[in-house]
Structure to design on (175 residues):
């Protein structure tokens, strides 16, 4: 959405990158896509399920994220997963993922098969409760892997790229 902002407007704020109209008018923001890569080796729990904090994963290894992870005061939407390699290993007989936040762990994506035979490619569940645009003061998304017949740590194959769209929202200060 380049060039949608009127850069010479008296209400344009170059720091946050969009126009602010405090009289209740419109705001224009720039949307971005982010991608975070998650691999089977990231799951280390000796249990049938494990949730990974995607923000912490991106902070620990910046190269996993397609750009700077959008931390605070953001609006997100369109969460999806690109299954690059199906999950398998050990005695695992089924593998599924869900995405969301604490308290609503399947809010971005409901139970989605990622086991051998699921087929690589895009996976998304637009009916998920938080899939529509949502403002977050602090974005802490979770990706949960659940396996059947063996621990998640036994998965030695599996790659999923988590994609979402975001924009930074202004922080309004009051005196």
């Amino acid at each position: 959405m380049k060039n949608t902002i009127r850069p010479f407007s008296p209400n344009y704020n170059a720091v946050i990158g969009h126009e602010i109209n405090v009289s209740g008018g419109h705001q224009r923001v720039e949307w971005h896509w982010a991608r975070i890569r998650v691999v089977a080796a990231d799951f280390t729990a000796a249990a049938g399920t494990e949730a990974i904090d995607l923000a912490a994963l991106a902070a620990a290894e910046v190269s996993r994220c397609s750009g700077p992870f959008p931390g605070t005061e953001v609006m997100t939407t369109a969460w999806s997963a690109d299954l690059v390699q199906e999950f398998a290993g050990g005695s695992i007989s089924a593998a599924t993922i869900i995405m969301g936040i604490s308290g609503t762990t399947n809010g971005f994506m409901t139970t989605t098969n990622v086991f051998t035979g699921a087929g690589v490619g895009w996976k998304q569940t637009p009916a998920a409760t938080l899939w529509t645009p949502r403002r977050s003061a602090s974005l802490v998304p979770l990706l949960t892997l659940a396996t059947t017949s063996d621990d998640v740590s036994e998965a030695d194959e599996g790659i999923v790229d988590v994609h979402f769209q975001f924009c930074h929202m202004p922080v309004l200060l009051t005196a």
